[in-house]
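Protein entry
_____________
===
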Amino acid sequence: MPARSYAVLIADVVESSSRRGLRALLAEKLADASRRHLRRKLIRLPYSVTAGDEFQTIAADSFRIPALILDLRRSLRPLSLRIAVGFGRIADRIQPPVNRLGGDAFQRARQAMDRLKTGNLFRFDTLTAFSSRNERFDATMNLLYGLQDTLVLKIKKKQWDAINAFSDRQNLERTARRLKLDASTVSRNLKRGYYWQLLETAKVAAALTEREI
């Protein structure tokens, strides 16, 4: 029987050296994300800060990774993240802290992060990278998210605010009241923030991951 494949997510903060009070802000946001994602059974272990502005976790299932990426991008704002995902084995018993675990899933995630940092995935800026034993899957996911990252890099603060509020409420009128805006403005900000494209990307990527990994 082949060894089970896990999904390891490593992320770090873009331009972290220019942000004051980063460590406290990151700790606060990751604590909230850990509670939310454990409750929703999206992750196996709480997020663990491994070095400075970098953190990691293990997804509950590989196909949960697209939902994690989308939720981290919106809920950790104003922090902008590089996110790398590796699929493969985990050599140790899965228990916290995650930064003490090893295996080729972690190695592949690290390789994906290195490619992000060196900028050699594509000839355009990217924020997300994947690495697995399946080269066809990697090529498809890296292109899919590379194109999505082109949109993500264009999203403005007020559009992220709308995405964040709407994601929590899933109701246009309640979101508008929370933001003290009219519903048409919220709807416009969701469209201009490519929210519906982000959702569709996550759906397609989840189905592809469930089928291929």
Summary: The first strand starts at residue 6 and ends at 13. The radius of gyration is 17 Å.
